[in-house]
Amino acid sequence: MSTTPKGSTSNQDEITLVTTTTAITLTVSEQEHTVINDDSDSRRHEAFDLPKSKKFKSSTTLISNGSDPTNMSSNSNSTNLVDAMEHTNGEMNYNGNSENNNSQATQQTTTSYQMAGVLQHQTSTSSTKTPEIDEGLYSRQLYVMGREAMHQLASAHVLISGMGGLGVEIAKNIVLGGAKSVIVHDCSNVDYKDLSSQYYFTESNIGQNRAEVATKHLSELNSYVNVTFSSAVVDEVFLQKNKVNVFVLTDANLDDQIKIGDYCHEHGINFINANTKGLFGQIFCDFGRNFEVLDTNGEHPLTQIVTEISHDEAGVVFMSTDTRHGFEDGSYVTFHGVKGMTEVNDKEFKISVPSPFTFTIGDTRNFGVYEGGGNVVEVKKPEIVNFKSFSESLKDPEMLICDFSKLSMPANLHLAFQALSYFQKQYNALPKPWDAADADKFYEIVEKLNSENREKVLTDELNKHWIKLFAKTCTGDLCPIQAVLGGVAAQEAMKAVTGKFMPIRQFFYFDAIECLPENVFQPSNEATTESNIIPKLPRKPSRYYSQEIVFGEDFQEKLGKSKYFVVGSGAIGCEMLKNFAMMGIGCLKEGHVYVTDMDSIEKSNLNRQFLFRSWDIGKMKSTVAAEAVKAMNPNMHVRAYVDGVLPETEHIYDDHFFERLDAVVNALDNVKARQYIDRRCVYYQKPLVDSGTLGTKASVQVVVPFLTESYSSTNDPPDPSVPMCTLRNFPNLIEHTIEWARDNFAGLFTIPPQQADEFMRSPKEFAERTAKNHSEYDKTEIIENVKRILGEERPKSFTDCIKWSRNLFEQQFHNTIAQLLYNFPRDHITSKGERFWSGNKRCPHVLKFDVNNKLHLDFIVAASNLLAHIYHIPQISDRKSIADEVAKIHIPEFKPKAGVTIHENDEQVRADVERQKNISAMRKNGQSANDIEAEQLLSRLPKPDNILDIKIQPHEFEKDDDTNFHMDYISATANLRAENYEIQRADRSKIKRIAGNIIPAIATTTAMVTGLVCLEVYKFVQQHKNIESYRNGFVNLALPFFGFSEPVPPKRQKYLDKEFTLWDRFEVKGEMTLEEFIEYFKREHKLVPNMVSAGMSVIYSPHFMRQTSKAQDMKRKISELFETVTKTKIPPHVRSLTLDMLCDDLEGNDVEDVPYIKYTFR
């Protein structure tokens, strides 16, 4: 609440306004409510001293006829910004000290072209030196932004004004992203109102400057970013001296938004205005005129294999008919590696798309005739976007829709956010929380604004209920809302300085009114709207004050008593725990938050997982994260686990663990783990929110027992797999050679050494395990691997390693290819009369080793060192000495062999696999030929006593260690094989992403999606009963696109006259004999079991039970039968069994589908 300006009279007689941290009491709808006075808005209004734009008009003149909609002039003595303070400029240093220097008015007059740093992203900053990018730190973000955009970001200077919960969220994301400098600006002090969302503030900081306190924590996030603070006046000299590229203004009043927005527009400073009010948020972007968007969608350029190009006027390009090519009409493409029609290579063509499988490039009659080969790659073209100033956009807004179920919400919020400043001017205060009278006054202002701007307007669907909810909750601050808006706004700031991705044009409004009680945001009538729905408002200051304003004290108590399980404490998990700490989840005696993660902290985590610091590397994620959020909110009861949630750990996460939970939140990065958690939540009937990110894309799925389908109810289509024969012999894309190289690495340096190590540790057990678990064909291969590692290929020195590597090069890139060409010569014709080497098959050529070829030597260096590591031979990385040694090696001439079978397609591969299965199934006198060979090989393996001195050290693939030669080998191998097949090479970064299966990630998306998740958590605590209250979401910040929808209800099935879903089951409590069990179902459910099973084991089936033991079995307990049939002892922690049943009705008719059975016997 703002302090009444000196000389003004408050219209609220019952309010006595005092200093910032003093509490006063007022009457709100019969409730006594403690209000924390906030004069920060007044102080912030005095913190900006920029000259008025020539186009600038005060907010009171935005009404078309020039009149004030509420005659606010009589009570409004707003201070003009130009006269607010003496002209002061703050010069910051890293320690946060401010040296104030008085500046003369003449020194502040600067033309736009003189203002350093007031530049679009295309213009270089003061230093022309390209900043270095720490790939170890930024590796995941590099895959989102690209190297060029990262260089631009690393040169950017960002000013963020306002260090409340929203401002710090934006700052955190930008600092993690790697801007050159970030200035956090605020002249307000910390008070209780900040503690519910500003996670770097504690009660001990109350009274201290918000920017100064925040800077101490922000500066720890990224050592490459210069984070400073200021409470000085922001004027032209300030912006010039600090070379500001982007001005992010948060939670300012409308006059300052207009003044700063218009100034930035005229002077070429990228401007972002962000505000949150309770359950509502607003973002505005203005990146000036002729802003160049270099990448409009963030997708990798499309690549397709060319199979034919017609030699005619149309120039029709044919591609593989297996999939649609994905190109759009008017797109640009370029070709690489085309033979015959070489004129098309490395040239751009604008295409027309007549079908999903072809496109045309125009007349090719003057080109050569297409002979084969080639790829076509999409060329991304920049797009120019023009932005209007903030004041122009207020009157003629362009708004991004995010929820199509509330199409008029943006227009309503556009008016509401403006009306807030008008209300504050007239009544010298913001609307009181949940005050009906203030809400009526606020609505009148909104009505006036809408009617007075009728020439442009705004909306014909003014929603009185929404507007009043805005007024009643606007003084609250909610961490989840600020996480959403902070993630989006930070991404927009990055777009401003990089041109990477399409900016918001230009307003974005967001709301989460569904988080309120269902009878509040969906009232059945007007009377319900105005009565008996006021929450119990806070009576005294607390860290949750700003959240209690929105939801009330009773709701806060429910949050505090909640028990939540966060599965994963990586990027999403860290953000989730931070949100939970601010929300107060698990912060009362009865409450608890449990978090688990099996992983330890690595350097690449620090770019997104903001609870971790460099000194935490090597520690367990869950324990460090728990300690960090405990520091943010000491009242939080949080327990960290380091065990995965797996079938093998059900003794840890047992019935007692799950049954006490209120809900589960997934923070996982793989589908298999999500599906397992989903099954557990369905079994224990617990709510679940799942979320995930992929670069700028994010999704949220909410799972509510009995109300929605589960996560596993629908599956994404599987990723298309590469045919085996393509990988082995006929690659045509760099992705194929990378996958081959990754498999090759495992087949040489991981699997065989592991097998040899297992043999040496326990020869007898190894032999038994191999005999039991593998086919006859695989047994031979395993034994050959062990023999090779421990015997014939074992090097004694690094020179031996070099010799081995040189032979490996010859085998992989010369001999194998020579054999392939021997079987299928370049001019080979198939039995159908077609060219063999055509379409998707690229004809390869052999590589001749050249010690002066860098790529060839890269392979030798990497392979030699990898082999040396396995045998504990000292590694050598000196390229010259290795080159000298490898030059001495003589390689005998290879002669292809007749009779070697090479599969031409996957049908032949599958037939060969089937043949191997048949061989395994064959038995002749209890043995097959492969059995005999395996025994012979085992007998020839070194005796254990002869290999005691050998120590084997298998390689476990680690993509992020640049010193272990893993990526060196895979990069060299992938590109050498690409050279074999005349495929365009890839850089190390791309190879690392594909080989390491790296998921691109950026902090902005992560922060945003966890905010969405926590909004659904509010609804869990509210215990919403209507599916319409929940929201699944899909967001792509690159486009930008926001899509929200109701969850899908569960599929309904029926048995007899009863409906059921996946959430239903038969509950059988208490141990029973089989006979009692059968009678129970007959009596209680009118069903006659004719088969009862547990997993793959049948416990009861009258048709298969032995008559001699049937009577005895019918008297046995179900748990005893389970142990007998499964041959396993039921662990002590297991209290129930999951059983499935086939059954008939009492008349003997088959009942097809029935729920499963939860049989609780303990």
Short description:
With 1162 residues, the chain is of the alpha/beta class.
Describe this structure in words.
The two termini are 58 Å apart. The protein is globular. Helix 13 (479-498) packs antiparallel against helix 33 (1003-1022) and helix 23 (734-761) crosses helix 31 (966-980). An 8-stranded mixed beta sheet has the order 7-6-5-8-9-10-21-20, with helices on both faces. Helix content is 36%, strand content 16%. The chain has 5 domains: 81-294 and 386-511, Rossmann fold, CATH 3.40.50; 303-379, Beta Barrel (Elongation Factor Tu (Ef-tu), domain 3); 558-719 and 999-1045, Rossmann fold, CATH 3.40.50.720; 732-982, Arc Repressor Mutant, subunit A, CATH 1.10.10; 1053-1160, Roll (Structural Genomics Hypothetical 15.5 Kd Protein In mrcA-pckA Intergenic Region, Chain A), CATH 3.10.290.60. The chain contains 36 helices and 37 strands. The chain is an alpha/beta fold and 1162 residues long. Mean pLDDT is 86; it is low at 1-32, 54-127 and 923-930.
